[in-house]
């Protein structure tokens, strides 16, 4: 998914500094939907083909993601949204980045914001096949709590529950 490198260059040589994080709002719904679809297509090729249109995903973001919990977006220096994270209770429901923002510190910055808003810890589900995301979360101190055969997700793919507990390893080592 991402690593902790915060100073790097985007395609074309444009430097990327530490992203600015702000709460997401309804005006972000369409760009969040675009990021969601692009990220899943590039980073999770094992998923079944997307059956929902951009407009349907934007509706889901606007009416579910942005209303049932907290959500944040990461912005570059020009204000372009690079990724988003969504938290419901202590469950990290979403953390997706533009494919070109991978390995630039954006995911780490979003995860830090989510952690600040989860003082008692944080859980998430991740597909077992998503080795990049699993490694990212492990670097950030998450441990596996259980494995599932896919019966709890709409893709019906095996997944894991991972948990981070404050005071445990923070996974801040650079790679």
Whole-angstrom Rg = 15 Å
Spatial shape:
globular
How much β-strand is present in the residues?
Answer: 25-35%
- Output the strand order for the largest sheet: 3-4-5-6-7-9-8
Task: Report how far apart the termini are.
Answer: 13 Å
Class by alpha and beta content: alpha+beta
Largest sheet: 7 strands, mixed
Mean pLDDT: 88
How many helical stretches?
Answer: 4
Q: Can you count the beta strands?
A: 9
Helix content: 25-40%
N-to-C order of helices and strands? EEEHHEEEHEHEE
Uncertain stretches of 5 or more adjacent residues: 1-15, 171-175
Question: Could you characterize the architecture of this molecule?
Answer:
The chain is globular. Strands 3-4-5-6-7-9-8 form a seven-stranded mixed sheet. It has a two-stranded antiparallel ribbon with strand order 1-2. It has 175 residues and is an alpha+beta fold. It has four helices and nine strands. Helix 1 crosses helix 2. A hairpin with a 5-residue loop joins strand 1 and strand 2.
What key attributes describe this structure?
27% helix; two-stranded antiparallel ribbon; disordered C terminus; 4 helices; disordered N terminus; 27% strand; alpha+beta; 175 residues; seven-stranded mixed sheet
In terms of topology, how is this protein built?
Elements: E1 8-9, E2 15-16, E3 20-23, H1 29-43, H2 54-65, E4 70-75, E5 81-88, E6 91-97, H3 106-116, E7 122-127, H4 131-139, E8 143-148, E9 159-164
Parallel strand pairs: 6-7
Antiparallel strand pairs: 1-2, 3-4, 4-5, 5-6, 7-9, 8-9
Helix pairs in contact: 1-2
């Amino acid at each position: 998914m991402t690593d902790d490198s915060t100073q790097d260059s985007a395609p074309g040589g444009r430097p990327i500094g530490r992203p600015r994080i702000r709460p997401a709002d309804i005006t972000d719904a369409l760009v969040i939907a675009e990021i969601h679809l692009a990220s899943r297509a590039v980073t999770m090729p094992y998923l079944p083909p997307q059956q929902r249109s951009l407009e349907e995903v934007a509706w889901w973001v606007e009416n579910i993601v942005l209303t049932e919990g907290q959500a944040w977006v990461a912005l570059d220096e020009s204000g372009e949204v690079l990724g988003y994270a969504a938290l419901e209770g202590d469950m990290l429901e979403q953390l997706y980045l533009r494919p070109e923002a991978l390995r630039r510190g954006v995911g780490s910055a979003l995860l830090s914001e989510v952690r600040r808003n989860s003082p008692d810890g944080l859980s998430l589900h991740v597909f077992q096949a998503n080795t990049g995301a699993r490694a990212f979360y492990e670097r950030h101190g998450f441990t596996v709590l259980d494995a599932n055969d896919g019966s709890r997700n709409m893709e019906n793919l095996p997944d894991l529950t991972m948990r981070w507990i404050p005071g445990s390893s923070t996974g801040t080592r650079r790679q």
